[in-house]
Amino acid sequence: MIDSIRQTPLDTTVNHHQHNHHQIVIGLTGYAEFEIAQQSGIIAPLTGCLVPANVEHYYQGLGENRQLIIDLDDEAESLTGAHRPLRRLFDRPGYFSLDDTLTHYLQFLVQESTRPHHTPNGLLVATLLSALQTRIDTRQPQDMRSPRRIRALDIARLERYVQAHLHRRIQVADLARLVCLSEAHFSARFREQTGLTPYQFVLRQRLSTARGLIVANELDLAGVAERAGFASQSALSHAFRRHYGHPPIALRESLR
What we know:
Blueprint: E1 3-8, E2 15-17, E3 22-36, E4 39-43, E5 47-51, E6 57-72, E7 94-97, H1 100-113, H2 121-137, H3 141-145, H4 155-164, H5 172-178, H6 183-194, H7 198-216, H8 221-228, H9 233-244, H10 248-255
Antiparallel strand pairs: 1-6, 2-6, 3-4, 3-5, 3-6, 5-7
Helix pairs in contact: 1-2, 5-6, 7-8
């Protein structure tokens, strides 16, 4: 039976895993970023998230941070017997904020759980879960489900990465890893923010670089294709014609 309460910082490098127990994470100090089943959110002090068992999640501490982490399996005291209905909290991932009353209770829970002879974890956690469940069911379902603060993607950083790696194949996973998101979530966020798919974004960077190299007239077209990261001169010509409406050789000849 897992029914544990601990305080710990989260690693400042991106990690992901899943486990066969439920988990609650509540921010005490600093910040952390989570992505649970493609729902992303920032965990700040007095906010938290619900992580159902066997759901893959990504997480990363943002600088110095300290989190309260509660691990619960289905046989935990706070989820069995009269508390069994509280399992509904973990039907799906969710983010929440603590109101004033729950903030005071969190302070009590943190202090009580560190005492040598403290109230059993099951009772401490069951009280917290009951209060969360009440708020989700009544007063503020939207606030409890998704008070997420999502950071805008740093497009300039992504551009710098692409420019530095034009010589090799760039995959969506490379860009997603750079901003600590899963591929699916990154692709959706990127398209929403820019109107482009990551593939289109990389292709435009390659074409822009190729055009600049052609104007500079320092390389033949095969060299331009290699420098801009195209598989061949033919691949460059095909993409260039589709994007600009004319082949690269036409641009070069017009500059003579």
